[in-house]
Amino acid sequence: xxxxxxxxxxxxxxxxxxxxxxxxxxxxxxxxxxxxxxxxxxxxxxxxxxxxxxxxxxxxxxxxxxxxxxxxxxxxxxxxxxxxxxxxxxxxxxxxxxxxxxxxxxxxxxxxxxxxxxxxxxxxxxxxxxxxxxxxxxxxxxxxxxxxxxxxxxxxxxxxxxxxxxxxxxxxxxxxxxxxxxxxxxxxxxxxxxxxxxxxxxxxxxxxxxxxxxxxxxxxxxxxxxxxxxxxxxxxxxxxxxxxxxxxxxxxxxxxxxxxxxxxxxxxxxxxxxxxxxxxxxxxxxxxxxxxxxxxxxxxxxxxxxxxxxxxxxxx
Length: 316
Fold this sequence. Notes:
Elements: H1 3-22, H2 24-33, H3 38-63, H4 70-95, H5 100-108, H6 110-122, H7 128-152, H8 155-184, H9 186-209, H10 219-247, H11 249-255, H12 258-270, H13 277-294
Helix pairs in contact: 1-10, 1-12, 2-10, 3-9, 3-10, 4-8, 4-9, 5-8, 5-12, 6-8, 7-8, 7-13, 8-9, 10-11
């Protein structure tokens, strides 16, 4: 494969993966509307996707000339539980109280949180570009947040806080994932991370619901579970990890700007959510803000923390 074809396929992986991950909130909203719970959908999501991750992980291990370090595998497992269990739970709970569009914008802000973490804990300087990015990104979020708060009340505040906490935790995941991906490779890292999260979610579900007392799922909820597991979890997870390995984190993150736009289009078409000037303004402000940050060039050793992860799309 030529270098151009290699990068072109990376571009396709990043674009399609971002859109599929963005559809996660749409499918979750549909499932909640027909009576499913957050815990049920998390269980179905991981129950259907776990075999895929286990198979890919075993195949990746067989192809490796040497066995990976246990430390790297444990780090991948821990990062997976952080991102795909805890972050997902917070994100899905937040979706009960916010629109899919606001949820996606809040998660989309995670690169700004990575920059702030680097400033607070690593002593990195915040440049003018960082300041402008932060201002634009959060201006967009607060524009849409204010609109929903005035229309739906205090529940929006609670839901937004849950999603924002998920974004903070995902920023931590992003910061730690790049060096582990470099050691394990994207397929094996993704398989270990998602498998660990799947096992922890199934344990969580068995404790919450009770062993042998699993509820019956309607055919429609099962269908949403399959869609969530295959098309909004397994496929985009591998696509985006592979995109990072082909394009690098910066370009992949920049391509992730399409995520909130795709989510807004799907939310309007599928969920019949409103779309007016606050939504358009919020999208423009946040996309420009994150675009500035994701295309910035690191000047110091610590700055790559801003660019070490995945595109702004897949928390949870």
